[in-house]
């Protein structure tokens, strides 16, 4: 059974920090690169960061580079995103999934809301 459960998030003022986590389960995630994606109000879902299965190398969107850090615990099937120096434009619902992700019609979790106020 495929599961994606995001947690954490919340509200913070600009310049603050938040962490989000994702517990994932299912064969589709075995040895898979994983990523974080976000969807702001009125916008399409966009890539935030990804981390490879084997070498653990990470990639980041230019908009978050130097401020966000992705990590994973493969033993616990958990993905993390540490977000520092948050900006109002980081406000969105954050989702985890395989990277590259499935189509919008594919399986997605419920996401977790992050709100950054100015």
Structure report:
Helix content is 0%, strand content 49%. The chain has strands spanning 3-8, 10-13, 18-25, 34-39, 46-51, 58-60, 68-73, 78-83, 92-98, 112-117. The strands form two sheets. The chain has a six-stranded mixed sheet with strand order 2-10-9-4-5-6, with no helix packed on it. A four-stranded antiparallel sheet has the order 1-3-8-7, with no helix packed on it. It is globular and about 40 Å long.
Strand order, largest beta sheet: 2-10-9-4-5-6
Task: Give the low-pLDDT segments.
Answer: none
Q: Please state the structural category.
A: mainly beta
Instruction: Provide the helix percentage.
Output: under 10%
Rg of Cα set: 13 Å
User: How many β-strands, per DSSP?
Assistant: 10
What is the averaged pLDDT score?
A: 95
Distance between the termini: 40 Å
Largest sheet, if any? 6 strands, mixed
Order of helices and strands: EEEEEEEEEE
Total number of helical segments? Answer: 0
Topology, pairings included?
Layout: E1 3-8, E2 10-13, E3 18-25, E4 34-39, E5 46-51, E6 58-60, E7 68-73, E8 78-83, E9 92-98, E10 112-117
Parallel strand pairs: 2-10
Antiparallel strand pairs: 1-3, 3-8, 4-5, 4-9, 5-6, 7-8, 9-10
Which keywords apply here?
single chain, 118 residues, mainly beta, six-stranded mixed β-sheet, four-stranded antiparallel β-sheet, 10 strands
In a nutshell, what does this entry contain?
By secondary structure, the chain is mainly beta.
């Amino acid at each position: 059974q495929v599961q994606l459960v995001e947690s954490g998030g919340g509200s913070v003022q600009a310049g603050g920090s938040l962490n989000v986590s994702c517990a994932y389960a299912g064969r589709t995630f075995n040895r898979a690169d994983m990523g974080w994606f976000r969807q702001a109000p009125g916008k399409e879902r966009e890539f935030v960061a990804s981390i490879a299965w084997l070498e653990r190398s990470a990639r980041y969107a230019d908009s978050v580079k130097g401020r966000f850090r992705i990590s994973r615990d493969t033993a616990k099937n958990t993905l993390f995103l540490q977000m520092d120096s948050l900006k109002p434009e980081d406000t969105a619902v954050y989702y985890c999934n395989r990277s590259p992700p499935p189509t919008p019609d594919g399986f997605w979790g419920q996401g977790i809301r992050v709100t950054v106020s100015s």
